[in-house]
Amino acid sequence: MPVALIIGASRGIGREYVRQLLARGWDVHATVRDDAALSALRAIGAKALKVDVTRAESLAGIGWELDGVALDLAVYVAGVYGPQHQGPMSPPSQADFDTVMHANVLGAMSALPLVAPMVEAAGGRLVFISSGMGSIAETDSGYGWLYRVSKAALNMAVKSAASSYPKATLLAMCPGWVRTDMGGEGAPLAVEESVAGMLKVIEAAGLEDSGSFHDYSGRTVPW
Ligand code: NDP
To answer: What is the pTM of this model?
Structure first.
């Protein structure tokens, strides 16, 4: 039975990864931050553990809980958007900067060396949910300034780590604009469609694709 780890699975895209992988018969480990989400995931058959990606000792719990487990797939989904209307006309506050960069960048950079060896053990895929808003090449506005900066930094973290883990396929992935708490009700994509698309792209990806950036439809997103 293939084994997956989903980091940030309480709701939205992360929870849908858990749901679809369980439906395919995978053994799914999933992290959440609170007891209600822990119970909800256990009720549907996931092996849930509590992790706050902004707390180093909490992230380290992944290593203890999954000691010796080889992961066919690990997905770092946890992320925050930050201030809704913040743009280049005003710099982010120190508090907003810390919150967004910690969850989106430092959390991912801390999880990576913890999880990548487990993924290498299975010759699997290690995916970081980024955003098209982190593409420097496709940026034509300052809307969501801090979030864009964080996802561009995440992209560099993934790309620059790929050569250090030659037996794992490291991918940055944009889920599209998805109807979740973050994406809002006006987003065009249902979460089911986004995750099904990403899983198709992930399944098709091999070691030669490590260090690349794709969206849920398989399009290569320019850095
Ligand atoms: P949601 O806001 O619905 O969910 C965010 C998830 O991240 C929740 O599970 C949340 O847990 C978790 N999370 C946030 N901070 C932490 C933390 N410190 N530790 C652990 N978990 C944390 O967002 P989406 O599902 O829409 O987004 C998921 C990912 O996809 C994000 O990285 C986002 O940037 C990215 N993305 C989303 C798009 C969209 O249109 N929706 C577009 C492009 C990218 P909790 O419930 O405990 O807060």
So the answer is: 0.98
